[in-house]
Amino acid sequence: MSKESYGICCCFLRSYKFGAAKAPQEIKELFTLYSHNGIMSVDHLYSFLKEVQGQGEITFQDVETILVEEIRKHRHLHPRHRKNLNLEAFFNYLYSDVNSPLASPSKVHHDMEAPVSHYFIYTGHNSYLTGNQLSSNCSDVPIIDALRRGVRVIELDMWPNSTKDNIDVLHGGTLTKPVELLTCLKAIKEHAFVTSEYPVILTLEDHLSPDLQAVVAKMVTEIFGDSLFTSKSESFTEFPSPESLKKQIIISTKPPKEYLVSKSDEVVQNDTQTGSNSLEDNGWGTEVDIKATFEDLYKRYALEDAESLDEDGLEDEDDNLKQNADPEYKNLIAIRARKRKGGVKDWFHDDPTSATRISLKETSLENAVISHRSDVIRFTRRNLLRIFPKAARVDSSNYNPLIGWMHGAQLVAFNMQSHGRPLWLMQGLFRANGGCGYVKKPDFLLQDSQDNEVFDLQKELPVKQTLKIKIFMGEGWHLDFKHTHFDQYSPPDFYVKVGIAGVPADSMMTKTKIIENDWIPTWNEEFKFPLTVPELALLRIEVHEYDMSEKDDFGGQTCLPISELRTGIRAVPLHDRKGDKYNSVKLLARFEFF
Ligand SMILES: [Ca+2]
Ligand SMILES: [Ca+2]
Ligand SMILES: [Ca+2]
Fold it and tell me: Which keywords annotate this record (predicted)?
């Protein structure tokens, strides 16, 4: 045990005990149960993994490999422990990376042969921006970063350069500093399939003359070559499957003028304020309380008449394409967006002869799902629906992605360079299915129920399963942070917020007590979460560092798809605000379903 000192007013030191992590009581008891005379043999570990960890598929051989690996890490062990685990080695195994709550290594395990419209797809918005929406630099770096995280939809806004003879990528009408289209395309070519083999969709917003479109066509064809997906037919009745499109780049046009500053300056300013506050809020971002969001929406809906909600929804389709577009360029476009016509009901008209894509602003989606919920869900079975952040999010913040997912929207487009709770949900969903960027939608979104009804999340549904979580302890902050990072004069005071993001009935957050002045806090607290739609539920974990007179400090977060959660005692790795995994910070928790 060592002592850690904190200077107070430069005149005296206050010291705190700082010891190595010790196994919680429940782990000690399990060790006693699965060992003999303080020794856990390969047989014991095998039984433990099957019975407590629910790893029914594990082989004796696998267990031997684990054991050898763990013993290698403990060379200092007494000779009688060189073929077995003692309590310390067992506890270290439970805390190791291989014992994570999601299968590791993770594999693609969903059926990948269904049409692309049957999947949620990891989608970026303004993928070339390094920071805010108004003045940040454009670069290929955030594009590479997104592709390496598994993002499968990259958005590029193309403009003529200053000499009008080449193409720049930038956020039109802003002070963002451009990057050449060529640089972006080369980066995409090099990094598209490093993390996932499944198709990458490029949504191109084009503000180009036909002769510059011809330059784009030549550039795209030369750079992507055989990996460029081209379709012989003008349209599909069903989109092809991700499996059939492996290692292919698909071009989709995105209607321009998404960024409508002129719309209402007043609204923009108001929203901007809430937006920037939310991101500055120590990096947590806005709370993603979907119950409150829906209550709010229904209140608003009751006040306004349905017709006024129909306004200002879809982006205007680029007429250039139909009229003067360069024919080579036109041929590259495999997924075409549909022109906006009529009211909400018309937007979601499902034409059986041709699958299409439409693009909606987050607030228009909110209105559409209140007034035309069934139409939206039915539409998204065969057609693609893209949702994008409202223009007021100049700070590159994001919105609650669950509203889109619950209604079948495949392309919920996010500012990936950002941070905060909505982004953590996005990263959480796409940890599923081997992190390949495509997650199969649950069946109830793809077909009507037996009584021919469309899935209704407002309806009271029975509890399908209950998740029980016990949070034992946390460790690793002392390795990943400076000792004065959290509190200047004392060790940190951690507590855990834990809960569910999902349909409104399942969404809730709760928290542990605060453990004061301890780098290795032990909570030993248990929580139960009844789930009516576990298919859409994400487990949310946030570690807060409590401060009496200030806002909580950020101590780590993660978000995990419930459908892939492994039961048993697991070491839960935590991530920073952006979603990058910390080297050492982990929680030890037990998960059970009943
Ligand atoms: Ca603090
Ligand atoms: Ca403290
Ligand atoms: Ca504190």
Answer: Cell membrane, Hydrolase, Lipid degradation, Lipid metabolism, Membrane, Transducer
